[in-house]
Amino acid sequence: QVQLVESGGGSVQAGGSLRLSCAASGLPINTYCLGWFRQAPRKEREGVATIDSFRGTSYVDSVKGRFTLSKDSAKNTLYLQMNTLKPEDTAMYYCAARNVPSCSGLYPSNFRFWGQGTQVSVSS
Predict the structure, then answer these.
(1) What are the counts of helices (DSSP H) followed by strands (DSSP E) for the chain?
(2) 38-90, pLDDT tens digit by residue?
(3) What is the rounded CA–CA span in Å between residue 3 and residue 15?
(4) For residues 8, 9, 12 and 15, what is the CA-based torsion angle, rounded to 10 degrees?
């Protein structure tokens, strides 16, 4: 049974930083595509970053240069380091995994397994 458990969300002021974690079980993170997504109120869920062994990491344009996705294979954990946060980054952030090795884009519909989410709030 695949489980993804996010943590690390919180409230920060603009310009601040947070690091999100996603502890995975039942799925070796080195084998499959993983990603971070977010959903703000009244908006559709959007892809933030993905990682796989073919293309490495990919980011949505709005977070390039500010967010960094990484993983610790020994802990089977995915991270999202978020720097220079902006109010528009406010959203529920979700960790997700595909059941295939390749990511093929930042499309939520491609991902089968989801965590419960962690809230990020950025004030101006």
Answers:
(1) 0, 11
(2) 999 999 999 999 999 888 999 999 999 999 999 999 999 999 999 999 999 99
(3) 32
(4) 70
